[in-house]
Every structure is written in structure tokens, then in C-alpha cells.
Amino acid sequence: MLEATRTLPFDIKDYLRLDTMPHFMCPGCGHGIALRALLAAVHDCGIDKDRLAVVCGIGCSGRVGGYIDANTFHTTHGRPLAFATGLKLARPDLTVVVVTGDGDCLAIGGNHLIHAARRNLDITCLMLNNEVYGMTGGQASPTTAATRLTSTTPSGAIEPVFDACALAAAAGAGFVGREVTRQAPALKTLIARALRHPGFAFVEVMSDCTEIYGRKNDLGEAPEMILSQKADMRPEARRDAPDQPFRPNALPTGVFVERDLPEYGERWRAHAAALRGETER
Amino acid sequence: MTARLTALHGNHACALAAVAAGCRFFAGYPITPSSEIAEHMSHALPRAGGVFVQMEDEIASIAAVIGASLGGMRAMTATSGPGFSLMQENIGYAAMTEVPCVVIDVMRGGPSTGMPTRPAQGDVMQARFGSHGDRPVVALAPASVQEIYTETIRAFDLAERLRTPVTVLYDQVIAQLLESVAIPPPEAVKVAARKWANGAGGFQPYAADDDGVPAMARPGDGHRVHTTGLTHAESGFPTQSPAVADRMMRRLLGKIDLHLAGIEKTETLATEDAEVLVVAYGITARAARRAVTELRRDGVKAGLFRPVTVWPFPERALLRAAETARAVLVPEMNAGQLVLEVQRVIGRAPPVRPLGRIDGEPMTPGEIAAAVRELARHA
């Protein structure tokens, strides 16, 4: 596994494709903070970027991979976990990270999330949750909270939201955690723990869509939106705090699940080797 | 070593051929009448040092196959019409990103759930046009268990050589037919090695060589390239430039034309002086062969043209076979699909007539012969 820890200071330029800059994310978008936290975690874990594969789906989150100086795959909408499953099984030597979004992972790709969690292949999945379909112009997603305005909920959303972490945990993920972009150091630490976890690790990153979602719902500019994460999110110790209207799940942060489960790739290789008579089962 | 003679069901032959061709990754989802391929692969691949994984649906199956191929493995999935429909978006992704893979589609009655245990040839146009946009298409249509074996191996060779998905189309009848098969010795199985990029700097992942096929970067070899289904430049990164988009798309589509001679495969029977030409593929071609043989015995000048490669459609070979024809008959187990392509190639004359069967039964030599006699009378 990933035992090495780098002692050299982290320089983000070592991990970016600088010729792809400037990036296309809107001013104030939280995805850049998530990208930086991921790269810093990759650095801390001592992962060789030649052996790092980043698999993305479609949407704003889907564009994050293209900026990373690694083996990057921009796949189809909702399917990055399925592509990553084939890649990781074919190439167990690679560190495979999936970067997905709330629409990509919970709506069109929901089936792949629950089965990736169940199968427990060694993939780290970062779901950047900005509560909206930003790329297509701000339509409601499975994490758009009740009463929020989007371009497809012009009178306010009325559907319940998904608690992605509870879903991943219930489906059997060995590692589940959530963090906000406001807490960038904690986010980096959480992602590093997820990368070190041998098995499927799910991290929900509470990002923010200032330009479309924030504007439409009068949530202020980027600083106000990021600062509001403090009031909206509760550390685990305060889970009994009363609900607030836009955070019906009283979203806690931190690590919710960390358990040792048989990793699928190792399990398959041992199973196949036994069938070939190479080792004792 | 010489070929070993054995008896196999079509789906079993397909799985054995895939393993012989070096396929070491299979992802699939159960569906009649293709499931035996997955079952055989689940047995064979762990023993061959490969990976078998049953995915949560067909979309995930083809995605995992593409992922494994991106990682460097020869990879395949197998399905039937409903699953083939679900795979179309990702087949387009594989074509756009130029990822070799093989898709077996065992055709059954459709549309929708249709007749799962009965044969059809209703996916021949889906194999051509199922994915949105224009893409390079290669599809092979074996007509016997022996040919399932050889065409599955050829599918891997073409996929690796051209860096494109290749579909093998056959139907429920030959999938579950038990026939004798000559298994060639391993040294006789020829599958092209994928053209991998070497470690040189300044690598452009979509800059093609003269053969129209770019070298592929293997993760871990130091190239760290970007792969995207967005229209991309030679660099692999997305482009909005009309000039670049046009150049890249024309190269992508044109690589099939550059390799046409190696892709096309056809068979003819008694076409030299044929007045009525039968154009048939897959299981239907076997009924047509019997019909043509019996018609010739009765003095009716019938001939058979059989595309083994259905896409790209072998236009010039068909025109040659149809030189003396005064009528063309296209029997197929659908309401008239490949007949549209035959009509396009032949033009206004001679007349091209469909003969469709959509009741879940294979075509009989008798009904094909009767239709030929009818055309011969009026031709």
C-alpha cells in the first residue's frame, strides 16, 4: 500500500499541467480548493504521478482531471466508477482516483456508486457536491435542498436530498468521509486517509457553485458562501444540533466509516491463483 | 501442430477464441442468448491469468472493458440486443478515444424485450448507427460455429490494429448450435500487437502515423496523457477549433478506408453468371446457400453473395458479384435492414427486393428458393 510519506514541501505546480491554465472554473468555485487538496494529499502519500490515474465523469467535476499532470481519463456521464473498475482490475499497480459530482455520482451514476462500494475495489472516489448541475446551466440535482431555486425548480425544489455518505456506507464502503472546502487542511488530511485506505474509499467534498446556484439563491459572493459552510456543517460532536432549513441532514463532517474489509482486487487475484494451483487458498 | 477437431456450441467457441486471441479481461451482464459466453469466460479467465467481472449492468460492463483496455489488456464483453442498446454511448466513447475492444452481440427477437430465446438479425443497423454522431464502425457476421471462432479472433486483431471497437454479430441459432470446429494451434492465431508509444518526449497521443492509427500511451510508461470523449486535438486535449475538429474527425473515420482491404471479407457462390443474386449474412446465408445449390440443380441461375464483414459494407465486392444479376434478393431476419445498404450500393437497377422474417423463426431454404424463382420468372 501507500506507506511512503514525502518530506519535500508541496508545490502544486509539480502536479498541474501548467499549459492547460487558466482553468475554466468560475470565480469562487470550490472545485479548485478540492483539486489542490487532492494534489497535496497525493504528494503527502508519496504517490508517483506516472502511476496515478484520475478518472472523471461529465460536469464541472469532470473537468478537474484534465488539469492534473497524471494519467487522466474524462469518461462518459455517470460512468467513471465503472471505467475505473476495469482500469484498476487490469492495472492494480496504479493508484486510481475518481473525481465525480453530485449529479454524475448520485443521479445518472448512482447504480455504479453502490456497486463500487459493495465490491470494495481499491479506488478513491471524490464526489464534489455543489448541489447543482453547474455545467448545463444550474438545474436541480439529487442534493439540491428543499426550497432552493434552480433553473428546473423555478418555484423551489421539493424533492428530498440524498445523503451520499449514508448511501455509500450502507452499500458497504470501507471508508466514508465528508469535508467542506472551507476547511482545506482538514480536507487534504481526509483525502490522504482515503488514499491510504486499502479498498473503496468515498469522500464527499462540500463545494460551492457561486456563479449559478449562489446567485440564483441570493447566497452572497464566494466568501459569504464559503463562510456559510461553518454554520451549515456540524462536526460529529454536534450531530444533535437542530436542523436548519437548507441542511435537512444536518451534514456532519469527518470520517464516518473506516473498516477493514477484503479488497476486491486482492481477493480476485488470490481466487484466480488458487484456481491455477499456484497458492493455497 | 495441426488443428484439433472438436464439437462446440457457438457461445463456447466464442469464449475459447477470445482467450486464444489473448483476451484477458471480460466484463458482462447476464442476458439471453449470450450468457454462456460470460459463463465460459468466468471459468477460463482466472485460469489464464485474466480477470472476469460481472458488472451491475451493460453500461458498466462496456465501461469496465474500455477501462481495462486503456490499462493495456485485451478486453471483451458480450450481450444481446437490449444490452447492446445500453452500450451504445460507451461504444462511441471507445471509437472516439480509439480504445480497442470487442463487443459480441448475440441477436434475438426485438424490439424491446422481444423474443429472448429466438433468433433475429435486427441489430445490424444498430451496429452501424447505434451510437450518436459519426464513428468508425467494424462489424463481423459469422455464419457457423467454426466462423464464430475465427471471426472472434479476427475481431481482436482488427480492434488492436485499428484501435477501435469491433462488433461480432450473430444470432441465437448459431450461438446455441453444436457443430464441429477445427481449433487452430496457438502459433496459427495471429492478433496484432497494440502500437504502444515509446518513452520519447513531446508525445502527441492522437497524432497518427501514415496508417491513420496513433500509438497508444500505456499508463505508467511516463506519458501522462489525457483521454477524453470530447472532440480533441492531436494533444489529446479538447478543441473548439472547426479546422482541428474537421481534421481529427476525418482522420478518425478515414482510418477504416485506409485499411479496407484487411477488413473486408466476403464469400460468393455461383455468382459468375447469376441472374438472381441472393445477398445474405449470418445464419440466413446458410439457408441461402442451400437454396442456391438446389436452384442451380434445377437450372435456375441463382448466386449467393455473403458479407462476412458487414460494416464497412463491402461495396465493390457486391458490385462485382452483381454484374450479371437481373434481380437481387436480400433475405434477413428483420423487417428489412441490410437491404437498404444493398439498394444504396446497387442503385436503380437491377431491382433489389427484401425478404424479411420477424416471427422468431430462422429463414428456410424453401422460402428463399421460392422468392428467387419468383424473381427469376419476372427478371
TrEMBL record, chain A:
Give TM regions.
Answer: none
Output one GO MF annotation: thiamine pyrophosphate binding
Q: Where is the signal peptide?
A: none
| Top-level taxon of the source organism | Bacteria
> Per the database entry, which stretches of residues form a coiled coil?
none
The opening ranks of the lineage are: Bacteria, Pseudomonadati, Pseudomonadota, Alphaproteobacteria, Hyphomicrobiales
Q: Give the protein's recorded name.
A: 2-oxoacid:ferredoxin oxidoreductase subunit beta
Instruction: Cite the Gene3D superfamilies for this sequence.
Output: 3.40.50.970
Sorted keywords for this record are:
Oxidoreductase
Which terms does the UniProt entry file under GO BP? cellular respiration; small molecule metabolic process
Thiamine pyrophosphate enzyme TPP-binding domain: which residues?
59-205
Q: Does the keyword Oxidoreductase apply?
A: yes
A Pfam family name for this chain?
TPP_enzyme_C
Protein source organism: Rhodoplanes serenus
- Cross-referenced CDD domains, in alphabetical order? TPP_OGFOR (cd03375)
Q: What InterPro entries does this protein map onto? A: 2-oxoacid:Fd_oxidoreductase, THDP-binding, TPP_enzyme_TPP-bd
UniProtKB/TrEMBL annotation, chain B:
Which ranges carry the Pyruvate flavodoxin/ferredoxin oxidoreductase pyrimidine binding domain?
A: 17-249
UniProt key word DNA damage: no
Molecular function per GO = oxidoreductase activity
Show which residues constitute the signal peptide. Answer: 1-20
Per UniProt, the keywords (alphabetical) are: Oxidoreductase, Signal
Gene3D superfamilies, sorted = 3.40.50.920, 3.40.50.970
Residues that span the membrane, as ranges:
none
Q: Which SUPFAM superfamilies match?
A: Thiamin diphosphate-binding fold (THDP-binding), TK C-terminal domain-like
Pyruvate:ferredoxin oxidoreductase core domain location: 274-368
Q: Which PANTHER family match?
A: SUBUNIT OF PYRUVATE:FLAVODOXIN OXIDOREDUCTASE, SUBUNIT OF PYRUVATE:FLAVODOXIN OXIDOREDUCTASE-RELATED
Q: Which NCBIfam families match?
A: PRK08659.1
Protein name per the record? 2-oxoacid:acceptor oxidoreductase subunit alpha
Organism annotation: Rhodoplanes serenus
